[in-house]
Amino acid sequence: MKTLREYIKEAEENGVAIGHFNISNLEGLHGIYNAAKKLNLPIIIGVSEGEEKFVGLNEVAALVRTLRERDNYPIFLNADHHASFESVKSCIDVGFDAVIIDQAKFSFDENIKVTKECVDYARKVTKETGRDVLVEAEIGYIGSGSDMKDTIPEGAGILTKVEDAVRFVQETGIDLLAPSVGSIHGLIKSGKPHIDAELVKKIRETTGVPLVLHGGSGLRDEDFTNAIKAGVSIVHINSEIRLAWKEAVKKFIIENPNEINPTKILKGAVEAIEQIVESRLKLFNAIK
Ligand SMILES: [Zn+2]
User: Which residues are catalytic?
Assistant: First the structure.
């Protein structure tokens, strides 16, 4: 099987992007995996620190590994927005394929220092084990939390400067970069954020590393396709999945107040997540 790095390269060559979807539970994992298999596309499962704590660090690693080995399928696991070297290290140690060290809200130099530490550790593990662990970092604050927001949070959404991106990549040696190009984490109720595709293109060309788009939930279709054409190789979706899960469970409970069997209550949530993921994957991969 190809490595995640190879799948990212292939996606870029084909002008498409790999979908990255977060899970908090088995409904999420099954819904996402069903959609990926249906379309026969590689897939990245993400867990934030909170999601990872809820599912369990070893548990989530075992779940994804089990599917990959059983079906010989390109399903990968990413530590989404981890806040310290220690939490990144614990994910690398249990077998995650990729990690995101998120220091974007700290100073630029502090961000470089901690990111470099994570890259050095990933390279050490690669040298010792042959596992290719990818490290992603962020510059430019795009807000935090996959939740419903009334407005864009204060201080978020300042676009990344091209020269900062170049210096950051050179000094840290990261594999993937998440710049601030217009999207915001969460679902914004007042208006939709807009992606600066020209900036995406410039950052991709000058840094030489594939780019990752965060805060994808709620963006217009053309914002995704323009960003992918301009150099985004991975797109993150989380809030839309959470909303689909909640709406499906709520609807079922209201319609079936006496049902207590979780396999019945949660079945609709798996299907709702599968639908969202399928439509997003089709969009990211130009499948009609
Ligand atoms: Zn993110």
Answer: 80
Q: Which of 160, 148, 65, 51 is nearest to 100 (CA)?
A: 51
Average pLDDT over residues 160-176: 97
Across 76-100, average pLDDT: 98
Residues, CB within 5 angstroms of ligand 1 (ion): 214
According to DSSP, residue 226 is labeled H
Q: What is the DSSP letter of 179?
A: E
Structure tokens at 235: 């797109």
Ligand 1 centroid–CA 46 distance in Å is 10
Q: Convert the pLDDT of each residue in 48-76 to its tens digit.
A: 999 999 999 999 999 999 999 999 999 99
Q: Which amino acid is at 185?
A: H
What's the 214 CA to ligand 1 centre distance in angstroms? 4
Q: Both tokens of residue 107?
A: 């100073």
Rounded to an integer, what distance in angstroms lies between the CA atom of residue 188 and that of residue 193? Answer: 8
Confidence of residue 190 (pLDDT cuts 50, 70, 90): low
How far does residue 81's CA lie from ligand 1's centre (Å)? 6
CA distances from 287 to 55, 56, 141, 280 (A): 32, 34, 32, 10
The yes-or-no verdict on residue 9 having pLDDT over 70 is: yes
Token readout for 139 is 């510059």
Ligand 1 midpoint to CA 104 (Å): 11
pLDDT of 230 above 90: yes
Cα 286–70–92 angle (5° rounding)? 80
Q: Contact at 8 Å (CB) between 168 and 206?
A: no
Q: How far is CA 133 from CA 31, 122, 123, 126, 205, in A?
A: 26, 6, 8, 7, 23
CA of 58 to the centre of ligand 1 (A): 22
Residue 46, helix vs strand vs coil: strand
Q: CA–CA separation, 55 vs 98, rounded Å?
A: 18
pLDDT > 90 fraction of the chain, expressed in percent and rounded: 85
